[in-house]
Amino acid sequence: MHHGATSRADLAKQLQVSKPTISTNISELIEKGIVIEEGKGDNELGKKSILVNFNSCYRYVLGMDISKRRFKIALGDLRCNIRHTLDMAYNHPDDVDCGGVIETFLQEHKINKEHIGCIGIAYPGIIRNGEFPNILSEKKVNQIKLEKLTSATGEIFHSKCLIKNDINLAVIGERIKANLTEVDNLLYISVDVGVGAGLIIDGKLYEGDRKGAGEIGFTVPNIHIDGHYVNIEEVASKTGIFKIIRGDFNKIKDSLLYKLCHGHIDHLSMTVFQEALEGEDPYCVALIKKVAKYLGITIANITALLDIENVVIGGDILGLHESILPAINAVVGKLVPFHTAVNLAQIKDSSLIGAVEIAVEQTIEDILN
Prior knowledge:
With 369 residues, the protein is α/β, with parallel strands linked by helices. The protein has three domains: 6-54, Arc Repressor Mutant, subunit A (Orthogonal Bundle); 60-175 and 350-368, 2-Layer Sandwich (Nucleotidyltransferase, domain 5), CATH 3.30.420.40; 181-345, Nucleotidyltransferase, domain 5 (2-Layer Sandwich), CATH 3.30.420. 40% of the residues lie in helices and 21% in strands. It contains twelve helices and 15 strands. The protein has helices at residues 8-15, 19-32, 98-108, 139-156, 166-177, 232-236, 238-248, 256-260, 270-278, 282-306, 324-335, 350-368, and strands at residues 6-7, 35-40, 50-54, 60-65, 70-76, 82-89, 116-123, 160-165, 186-191, 195-201, 204-206, 222-223, 229-230, 310-314, 341-344. A hairpin with a 2-residue loop joins strand 10 (195-201) and strand 11. Helix 3 (98-108) packs across helix 4 (139-156). The longest helix has 25 residues, at 282-306.
């Protein structure tokens, strides 16, 4: 499966079984469609051997992502190659007819629903034994979206449906597609509307005792003078940054940010904030330095505890200004006694890719069993 096309003779050598046994087994697998004949070998002597290979299109899988107010679908083959995708807005549970969208998607790409081996779903929250711990913002909206989606897939397919946290799937997707499979320990941090993390430890996804590993939005990198504890999500996420600006808005009337908003807080957006940053607005520059500092402290705490050398950061916040990543690395370098590499995520839609990957793993396991 992982070595590509090979001859029956080479398979017999690798598996240390007789050629007649290999030939019989291969014939059965070809008849079922699991294995296909694919070209001829380059042997110099005798008749050219016919090569056989795993049929990556024997079954397909679906990956779905309902995070960030989007509904994304990916059709993947059994080598985790993404064949087709769909991306649409999904702000409210009533915005999308999930079942209709999925069926139309399959019809457009001429895929029989019976050929879907498994479905992986990226969910922006925690799901544990079918229950949703009440600890996250937008919990009820996302829960309703998930319930509608799983209900729709249950009506359409007989396939298994696997649901995991979107950031946990992001670290899987990033590791696979960014050629980090040789890295046994990897920390993925998403800094966007919220702040979350995914952990690969000893080559495997770590989800914790209660499937809640990675909820670093609740970690506390700082404390106010008045004694109020402030978590990283309150000072480094989109939501947190906007809340800080709203609180300061009437105090920064001389700032470029205030001018770009035309004096109205309702005009505030990430685009406007980024424009003010690029204009070197002192207020915005100071704010983003704090964001980098707090993210650096959070990363240093995690990597020092777990001795993780490789860290990847994704999400929109890191794209705001080129100074953020160097500032984070500077803080981590000061606080962690070992070398720790903090880099930007390379893969778009890594949660969706991770959803495809877990569906592929489950489908292959079902085929082998």
